[in-house]
Amino acid sequence: MHASALRFSFQVFVTLLVIMDPLGSVPVFLSLTASRALSARRRLAWQAVLVAGSVITVFALFGQQILALLGITVPALQGSGGLLLLLVALELLTDRTDPPVEVDDVNVALVPLGTPLIAGPGAIVATIVFVRQAHGFSDAVAIGVALVAVLIVLYLALRFSLVLLRVLRPGGIHLLTRIFGLLLSAIAVQLIAEGIRGFVRA
Fold it and tell me: How far apart are CA 143 and CA 165, in angstroms?
């Protein structure tokens, strides 16, 4: 993989990692699976990650066709994606997220863990934007590698959620969530700026 592709892969990895927020998902995962046995929690962890990966992969493969069908340009996608990510960042910074409610007859690995908690609108839009920015096979591989790496981190965070909660404590997870929110807000502003430059050039 070329140096430029490595940088692109790292950018995709950091962006998706911040958006999906593995540490922020730990308290939600524990609350939704509080009544489940340890084996059931482990099963739900990999199922949730599998669902999230499947949703994002579908949009990565067919998102451009959907945009072309709707006549949406790259600058428009970058601007709207940046605004959406900024809203997600503000939620992380202000802790104004609505906790999902478990429904007994629904597999929580599908809803709300897999989507929209992990594979939410922010992650989907960011993936489509990165796919539109990719040039050549090496960039496509870079996106795939970054996505797999993020999903592995997510699985490990959910799989060892009890250990993480004991080590970091709620205060530590709260602090890291704020840091993730700050990083995501910077990424969102950069996307908006790139969208504005695209409109000016057009």
Answer: 30
